[in-house]
Prior knowledge:
single chain; mainly alpha; 0% strand; disordered C terminus
Amino acid sequence: MGLYNVTEAAVIAGLLVLLVLAVSGISRLRRPRIIASEIDTQGLWSSRSALVLAVGSAALETAIGVGGLIAVMANLPAQRLSLAAAGLLLGTYGAYTWFLLLAAPGSRCGCGSDTNVSGWITARAIVLAVCAALPPILGVDIGSELEGLGPPDLALQVLAAIGLGLLIWEFPAAIYDPRASRSDPPLGERS
């Protein structure tokens, strides 16, 4: 894989993280009570704290995602800060959902998808955190890279980020089997 391909991958990874956070945050801000009730079912927070967490995390996702996208489009240095914040937030989500797997298995993940916490939810958060880290680690400035692209290449990069973001976001819900109990084997091991 050449340097150009690694740069493209870093641009797509960074864009998909910012897009996912922007869309997720805006979506979650529109229904904070549903998110709060999911967090409340985890049994770790009071109802009031669950609402504060729901609104606060959704506002943070929105600020990081939308702010990062604006920084990328304007080619501002703040895009690096946005990606660092995204990586930190998503890494925290990964650690929290891993903790939930141990402390409150079977509880809702709190992401608004009406899905129980699972290893896939944790993996999604970690994959997104790694995607947020790729551009800074590889020294890729997303805004500068996008400025140099013609319309077809720019459209391809943005569509790739949107498509991969959708796949990463929807994968845990797509494999979730609500009929499965904690004692059932994983989907791939059923006869």
